[in-house]
Fold these 2 entries.
Entry 1:
Amino acid sequence: RRIQREGDLSARVRLGDGRDEVYTLARTFDELLDTIEAGVKREKQFTSDVSHELRTPVSVILMQCDELLGQETLPQELRRELETIRRKALNMSRMIAQLLELSRADQGRAQLELEDLDFSELSEMSVAEAHTIAAQKSIAIEAKIAPGLHLVGDQTLLIRLWGNLMENAIRYGRESGHIWVTVDQLDGCIRMQIRDDGIGIAKEDLPHIWERFYRADRSRTDSGSSGLGLSMVQWIVRAHHGEITAESEPGRGTLFTCLLPLKNKN
Ligand code: ADP
């Protein structure tokens, strides 16, 4: 039950030697786990290899686009087409970078740079940055951030956490809508909440939004959406020993709540 609950595929039942059915069953479970563990490992390696292999050709496409776009004599129509190719290649290159990062995390090769951080300050900064993108959709952001909340964390990753959640709140928010942000303290944790009044997420999609490449609305493939943002968010939160949940009402909006352990005072 523990192996199932914790998803630790390297654990085994290891009942030892014995002759009755229970021992045979336990051995069979262990053999099955060997097969599953090897399969999952292969898949992770595959993702990592594929991302590596794709990095170079995509950079070449981007470079060639830039070179051609730099030619002043380029006909207008060709320029527009090239710009589309460049935009798509740029999305692809971002997706590959995210995939590589996630696969590094999967394989336990991600290195966190931990330091004492003023999370309140980091939050203020991240929300301020989101204002510019939100303004393009006339979305108003209201933030209540309690001062002086510290944690031990990786600054780059926590900025990314904010960035991904705010980007989603804007992308799936409605024109002239609102985003409410709060950061406060709750039972030894920092609680950050991001609520929007956008399109919301259907009940059947909600459990899957953390999965890689899962998009509730597959028709919205443009605008730089990759379906990797929330997988990254979940990984960052877990790497900081926190938890994150989402609640949503379709047509009304979505609330993300994230709890991160406060820095120990001692
Ligand atoms: P994407 O790059 O598609 O935004 P994410 O992993 O960040 O990928 O999100 C996965 C899916 O979850 C999105 O495609 C969208 O359907 C849904 N989603 C995420 N955040 C929100 C939100 N604030 N409001 C509504 N839907 C959301």
Entry 2:
Amino acid sequence: MSSCTSAETLEKHVYVLRLGHRPHRDRRITTHVALVARAFGARGLYLADVTDENVKQSIAKVVSRWGGSYFKVVDGVSPFEIIRQFKKEKSCVVHLTMYGLPVDSVIRDIVEKCEEILVIVGAEKVDRVFYDLADYNVAIGNQPHSEVSALAIFLDRLWQGREMSLCFPDAKYYIVPSARGKVVKPFE
Ligand code: SAM
């Protein structure tokens, strides 16, 4: 396989806190939030307040085929307890919201100051308290779109594109990029 970025070389540890998940309605989009988190270099996803075995199993299947067993989905957590754990020196809580400050105006500060980052994304309306608890309220453009796109773009800005070549040494398969068709090879 060609040279790739291992998760260890992404020096910051990033976790995602998903608020407001409604198990039947949001299953697919929360799974996509977790997929983006894993693929773009985060270490895990916390699902606030509710449990959802379905989301956990979908991610476990992806991890078993494509690797990244360090990536954990932890459901049924208290968001306040998770945020409390990130309220220490060199740890930051970043809330993604269209009402926040433009990502390009704060990303340098975040890169310099935060060794560990909790990224909060919502589903529907996010409670005011999370805006107050966040160290940074960050907008990916000031228009409403999606938690999936917001997370992807935030992580890409954070890693400056290095996450694109992330590789997972415990994967069973890897993809050989090709102009047409699908080339998938097993690790020997
Ligand atoms: N108006 C809602 C709100 O309270 O932010 C938008 C909800 S949106 C469907 C779900 C989540 O996507 C938001 O909680 C936020 O995390 C993320 N999001 C949507 N647009 C965004 C943007 N422009 N910048 C950053 N995050 C955004």
